[in-house]
Amino acid sequence: MAGLGWTGILFDEAHGGAGLGFAEMIIIMEELGRSLAPQPFIGCVGLAGTALARSGAGETKEKWLRGVVDGSRIVALAHHERGGRHDVVDVGARAEFRDGVFVLNGAKSLVLDACGADAFIVPARAVDAPGALTLFLVEANAPGLKVERQRLIDHRNCALLELTNVSCPASNVIGEVHRGSDLLERSIEAATVLLSGEMLGGMSQAFELTLHHMKTRVQFGVPIGSFQALKHRASRLFMDIELARSAVLAAARALDCNSNDASRLVSLAKARCSDAYKLVANEAVQIHAGMGMTDACDIGLYLKRARVSETIFGDARHHRNRWAQLSGY
Fold first, then answer.
1. How confident is the model at residue 293, as a pLDDT?
2. Engineered SS bond to 285: which of 52, 65, 182, 292, CB 3.0-4.6 Å?
3. Across the chain, which distance is largest between two alpha carbons, in Å?
4. Are 288 and 298 in contact (CB under 8 A)?
């Protein structure tokens, strides 16, 4: 995939990328979602890659961003902590400046694409001021860093991180000291759009598998797709998928042109995809009947992915509330 240039779609040509945007990247994410491909796009390209790309000039950025673009390095962004829900600035990890280096202590959970990563971008708090976060790049072999695989029902690659007196030189600060919250939030928004694109691909594939089953499964001498009740359910799924598609494309284009509505549209897309993917997967299993509950049928894999994807970067309720707040309600 890196050889095809997919990992560089979002990034400038100056860093080895293609200089395209989210509208193009969504095409790739939709296909990855269709196949449930276990590739480190959301965590590495969407989160860490966009954080590096927007962090300003510096040797650390040049070294690691080029590695992300050409696929030679995997970088994960460890932003989530237990009990933090979806509040970006609710960070308990601490950074103390001692003898010319920052010393990091804390724990992170649900770190996407962490297993096998070469480095981690870790948000930590050096002062107690609200929103005053600093992003640190910590290499995977740093003393005091422990990575433990975290198992999710959809087998997505993620892990727990423990940092115990991990030293990080000032040169490995991503962005500016105490001013990393905005960079972190924008990176999460970028990854949320990519995740929404993946979810769109997953629900589309689950729907197509279900349509095929309705056309080929025969009961009472006729295909079950001829039953009016199932036609109505399939029509509802089709409409929800198309609404989700419109929302995802609108969010992607808004990010590409730095629209003032970008944050609102990102939340709209994630809320629609969370609801739609869960509904499509639930209905797909029901229409497949008993065989849909077995490992012999792939449709159950999409249900598991829908359940996990729904909560990553905020569930539908969180993003509806966020959309309302950003809209002034």
1. 85
2. 292
3. 80
4. no
209 within a domain of the structure (yes/no): yes
d(CA 162, CA 156): 20
Alpha helices in the chain (DSSP H): 22-35, 50-53, 59-70, 181-216, 228-256, 262-288, 299-311, 316-326
Instruction: Indicate which CATH number applies to the domain containing 112.
Output: 2.40.110.10
Range of the domain at 139: 77-178
CATH number of the domain at 272, please: 1.20.140.10
* Confidence band of 285 (pLDDT split at 50, 70, 90): very high
User: What percent of the residues of the chain are helix, what percent strand, and what percent coil, each to the nearest 5?
Assistant: 50, 15, 30
Measure the CA–CA gap between 109 and 99, rounded to whole angstroms. 29
Same domain for 222 and 237: yes
Other beta carbons within 10 angstroms of residue 100's beta carbon come to 8
CA distance 47 to 221: 52
Between helix 22-35 and helix 181-216 the angle, nearest 10°, is 50
Residue 222 pairs with which residues in a beta bridge? Answer: 219
Structure tokens at 93: 């990890």
pLDDT at 283 (0 to 100)? 96
* Neighbour tally for 125: CB within 10 Å: 21
Query: C-alpha distances in angstroms, 259 versus 65, 89, 236, 265, 271?
Result: 25, 23, 31, 10, 19
pLDDT digits (tens, 9 = 90+) for 116-140: 999 999 999 988 777 789 999 999 9
Are residues 59 and 48 in contact, defined by beta-carbon separation less than 8 angstroms? Answer: no
Confidence category of residue 100, pLDDT binned at 50, 70, 90: confident
Give the angle 127-130-134 at the CA atoms, nearest 5°.
Answer: 50
